[in-house]
Amino acid sequence: MSWGSPGIGSVPHLAGELFKHRAGIEITHVPYRGANQGLMSDFLAGRLDLMLNTTGSLLEAVRLKQVRGLAVTSANRFPDEPELPTAAESGVPGYDVSSWYAIYVPAKTPAEIIAKVNADMGAILNDAAAKEKFKVLGVLPRGSTPAELAAMNVADAALWGPIIKEANIKVE
Q1: CA-CA distance, 72 to 84, in Å (whole number)?
Q2: Nearest Cα to 4, choosing from 34, 35, 30?
Q3: With contact defined as beta carbons under 8 Å apart, do 46 and 66 qualify?
């Protein structure tokens, strides 16, 4: 079986390698240069057996029944598509991959500026209008503290490091 991702080293690529590892299966990765560079059209045309990508890029195709969603990769079901089970519920215990975005500043940025940026971003992410705009994209906005972000960075390095090494992933 073949599976596509929007590129080598992308979160969907790493998620697929982790899935292979945790599920104990062998499937062939077909990397593309982004989701809009033939990945989606090849998937819809049946030239790929599976695709891993962000919710936003696939949710509409699932809703239109152009593709069949098998599972979400996060620990919890997506609230707007509760019929899609998690990968863990589908037989891959402990599988939990969520894409996330963060704002970084230079290391020497004063603490009061970091606190202000963090507070302002938290307010934006909690705004009902902003949440609605994210919802359409299949994104669940959530803020964090700088300490929580630092912990996520450490956890991601611990998760992805062995997978990158095992799969011999090299950025091209």
Answers
A1: 7
A2: 30
A3: no
Q: What angle do CA 16, 12, 159 make, to 5 degrees?
A: 70
Query: Which of 142, 146, 143 lies closest to 115, judged by CA?
Result: 146
With H, G, I as helix, E, B as strand and everything else as coil, classify residue 17. Answer: helix
Q: Cβ distance 131 to 80 under 8 Å?
A: no
Q: List the chain domain ranges.
A: 2-99+160-167, 111-143
Which two structure tokens, joined as six digits, stand for 164? 């990158």
The fourth-level CATH superfamily of domain 2-99+160-167 is Periplasmic binding protein-like II (3.40.190.10)
pTM summary value: 0.85
Closest CA to 58 of 75, 80, 89: 80
Q: What percent of the chain has pLDDT over 90?
A: 76
Q: At which residue do the structure tokens 């080598």 appear?
A: 8
Nearest to 39 by CA among 98, 48, 26: 48
Which phi and psi angles does 58 have, rounded to 5°?
-115, -20
